[in-house]
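Ops channel
N.P.: pipeline sanity check, posting one input/output pair.
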């Protein structure tokens, strides 16, 4: 019986497929019943008994951790395209705005699941339980890549990259929570407003080092390396 239901003795590939099916059923149940969904409701959606769910996820905390990991993968995929375009000749401000918009779009598209994941912040996590803030932290890590590369490109202190990356991620997460609760404006406008807020802060170190000059006419010494770079191009049009 255990083999037929994907128990511990089952083939690893079959067990992985069964686990994925149960996670998909859990997401459907969350969309139907909201963040207070019960394990009984998840099992009913999957067409199995509750002990079968526990074979794969131990308890609700285990199910939450697995769903969080899936959502984190979606987050990485959602912002990977802007991240992949980082480099000379690219509009960094545009990439930042695209990344924030992609993050907000994921929250909008997966509203019920996102709410289920973050609601556990106020429930008191058990030792070893996944941290819902991992979503924001992951977004911060991705933004750090973009910011760090640009700071190094201009011989600026790249130590600011993780601080700025996670600060922007936290800002986007807080704004996203507020916006999802009662969207009063288009998502693209929200992303633009958030980007507008942080962009002047990003320009500060450049201005401090190179001065408030017309950025497209005076460049740092490594002009051949950074000509038409995204940091200069974007600031020049801000």
């Amino acid at each position: 019986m255990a083999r037929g239901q994907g128990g511990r003795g089952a083939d690893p590939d079959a067990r992985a497929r069964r686990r994925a099916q149960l996670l998909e059923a859990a997401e459907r149940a969350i969309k139907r019943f909201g963040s207070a969904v019960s394990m009984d409701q998840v099992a009913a959606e999957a067409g199995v008994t509750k002990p079968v769910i526990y074979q794969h996820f131990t308890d609700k905390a285990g199910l939450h951790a697995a769903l969080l990991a899936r959502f984190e993968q979606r987050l990485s995929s959602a912002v990977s395209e802007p991240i992949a375009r980082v480099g000379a000749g690219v509009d960094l401000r545009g990439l930042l705005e695209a990344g924030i918009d992609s993050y907000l779009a994921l929250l909008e598209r997966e509203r019920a699941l996102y709410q289920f994941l973050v609601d556990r912040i106020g429930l008191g996590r058990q030792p070893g339980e996944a941290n819902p803030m991992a979503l924001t932290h992951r977004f911060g890590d991705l933004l750090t890549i973009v910011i760090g590369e640009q700071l190094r490109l201009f011989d600026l202190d790249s130590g600011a990259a993780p601080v700025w990356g996670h600060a922007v991620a936290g800002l986007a997460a807080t704004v996203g929570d507020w916006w999802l609760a009662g969207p009063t404006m288009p998502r693209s406008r929200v992303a633009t407003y958030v980007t507008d807020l942080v962009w002047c802060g990003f320009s500060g170190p450049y201005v401090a080092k190179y001065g408030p000059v017309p950025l497209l006419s005076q460049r740092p010494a490594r002009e051949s390396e950074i000509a038409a770079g995204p940091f200069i191009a974007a600031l020049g049009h801000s």
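N.P.: looks fine end to end. Residues 60-84 form the longest helix (25 residues).
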